[in-house]
Design a protein that fits this description.
This protein is of the alpha+beta class and about 550 residues long. It has three domains: about 210 residues, 3-Layer(aba) Sandwich (Phosphoenolpyruvate Carboxykinase, domain 1), CATH 3.40.449; about 220 residues, Phosphoenolpyruvate Carboxykinase, domain 3; about 45 residues. Helix content is about 30%, strand content about 25%. The chain contains 15 helices and 30 strands.
Length: about 550
């Protein structure tokens, strides 16, 4: 899908687009951005070679550059303002945006063009305007997506057209306003433009760009997916959805599933973070050629650094003069990050629609795996996906990190109505895609939880892909099924550890967690007017079964 040029249809796009044409703005290249980044005061050039720099037009001896953002090393969701929700505050924000653009245009600024989407079925042209002092973030944006250069520009010209304008991203990390100490992000999703003000963290630019691409895809009968998708041998593609820290990347990127795969079950990763499912054409399209991953498990001089393009919010040491090296493992701060190539494993840019969708939940009331038998419940469990926030990934108070949260479809970057996502996933499940729930955290009552190791989760995905798990009804939770042959597949103590109890205390715990989901979705329906009762009713029916057990007449 190639975008078209059309006149701006909102003041937001008119303001942002005009900023690109100021005398102070000029188009740049990846090569120039690399040179500017080397001179950027806070940037550090390491001795680690940049992986395959020539593909981006960089010097053969290019190095991995590191930038650190100060006190904020994660995304700040509370900075976000949606144009469609501004109401009477619209004029106030228009004035703020106008002043921000004026002040940026008084400085030297750069314009970088890129492409979002890796298949001719969906390729969107995108533009980033930032001050010259933000060259490193612009360089990272170009490597995270695909810069406007061959071979990607040639493929874009052959992609199918749609009546959408290009994505515009306006970013000024040096902006400040005492009324917005956490920065400000203004999003006009209908006009595919975003302004990111006062925020240094690269993830704001990445996710802001993806937000607009996902929204555009949904308008064209696609499913917006913040998750991972892979194929395993000749089995149908498997998609996993979860927030950072849920195991999404670990499951998606594993090439051997903790040794449980056979030689003929070759893994092909499409992506571990962002994709679209085209329901009309049965195609799943990755949106980025690179991976923006945490570095908490990257050890000193780890071989995986070979695949790095860039790093952010990690430490640097100099064991010998002139040889600066990365120190990761989140020693410096939480949420250290890197941008790296998918060449670290077998990969492809697209595949068919997923045959299986897995909601990764950190919910101790649920066993390690369940199969969902009804379309309505499958959507409801995704719309009420429960998890815990990964430490440091978002700029939130410490007390919030310990709380279980509900994040519909694990996508905090959605700006279109939630009901739209529900309807799109319902279409996907009605088309034959199966739904599963995996708890990747721990199972059991508070204080009595039994850990669910990563190796078990990976072996579950293996047997699920093969179709070897036999299922039986979970009588107290209509619509969910649990493994009948868990001991045979996952060890003799699987049922002892993870079989749901019939004890009153556990049933009350499960009932309370069900009610948490029902309350969340009911509030979305009654207060936000953004939910359909048909997606709540299956949860209510399940809760009523437990109510009858706990309070027999």
């Amino acid at each position: 899908m190639a975008t078209i040029h059309r006149l701006p249809q909102s003041p937001w796009r008119a303001m942002i687009e005009s900023a690109f044409y100021a005398n102070s703005a000029r188009k740049t290249t990846m090569a120039e951005l690399y040179k500017l980044s080397l001179k950027q005061p806070e940037v550090m050039a390491t001795a680690h070679p940049f992986y395959k720099p020539s593909q981006f037009g960089l010097p053969k001896d290019a190095k991995v550059l590191i930038s650190n953002d100060g006190g904020i090393v994660g995304r700040t969701a509370r900075a976000r303002r949606l144009v469609r929700e501004m109401g009477k505050d619209k004029d106030k924000y228009l004035r703020i945006l106008g002043e921000a653009i004026y002040n940026l245009n008084r400085r030297e600024c750069l314009w970088l063009e890129a492409i979002v989407g890796l298949h001719a079925d969906f390729m969107i042209k995108a533009h980033l305007l930032s001050p010259v002092t933000d060259a490193k973030n612009m360089l990272d944006w170009g490597t995270n997506f695909t810069p406007w250069m061959k071979p990607w520009s040639d493929l874009y010209k052959k992609s199918r057209k749609l009546n959408e304008p290009d994505i515009l991203v306006f970013a000024d990390p040096e902006w400040s306003d005492p009324d917005f100490p956490n920065g400000l992000v203004i999003i006009d999703e209908d006009e595919n433009c975003i302004a990111i003000l006062g925020l240094r963290y690269f993830g704001e630019r990445k996710k802001g760009t993806l937000t607009l691409a996902w929204t555009m895809g949904v308008r064209h009968n696609m499913v917006a997916c913040h998750g991972g998708i892979k194929t395993i041998g000749s089995h149908q593609p498997v998609a996993v959805f979860g927030l950072s820290g849920s195991g999404k990347s670990s499951i998606t990127n594993s090439h051997d599933h903790a040794g449980t795969l056979k030689k003929n079950e070759k893994v092909t990763v499409i992506h571990d973070d962002a994709f679209l499912i085209d329901l009309d054409n049965n195609i799943t399209v990755a949106l980025e050629p690179s991976l923006f991953d945490k570095t908490d498990a990257v050890t000193f001089q780890d071989p995986i650094i070979k695949y790095f393009y860039s790093a952010q919010n990690v430490a640097v040491t100099e064991p010998s003069p002139g040889k600066k090296l990365i120190v990761a493992e989140d020693i410096r701060n939480d949420n250290g990050r890197c941008i790296k190539s998918r060449d670290m494993f077998n990969h492809a840019d697209s595949c068919k629609k997923p045959g299986k969708v897995i909601w990764l939940q950190k919910d101790p009331s649920l066993p390690p795996v369940c199969k969902v038998s009804g379309t309505g419940l499958a959507v409801a469990m995704g719309a009420s996906l429960s998890t815990m926030r990964a430490k440091g990934v978002e700029n939130v108070p410490k007390e919030e990190l310990a709380k279980l949260v509900i994040e519909p479809f694990a996508n905090p970057f959605r700006v279109h109505p939630l009901t739209v996502d529900c309807q799109q996933f319902r279409k996907l499940f009605k088309s034959g895609t199966e739904c599963y729930i995996m708890n990747t955290h721990a199972f059991g009552l508070p204080g009595q939880e039994i850990d669910i190791p990563k190796e078990l989760s990976l072996s579950i995905v293996t047997e699920m892909a093969r179709g070897n798990i036999e299922w039986k009804e979970w009588r107290v939770f209509p619509g969910l099924m649990i493994p009948k042959n868990g001991n045979d597949l996952f060890g003799a103590d699987f049922d002892k550890k993870y079989k749901p109890s019939k004890d009153v205390e556990y049933l009350q715990f499960l009932r309370n967690r069900m009610q948490d989901r029902i309350t969340y979705l009911s509030n979305k329906r009654d207060i936000d007017h953004d939910m359909e009762s048909s997606f709540i009713d299956p949860l209510v029916a399940a809760r009523l079964v437990i109510d009858k057990i706990l309070n027999p007449i």
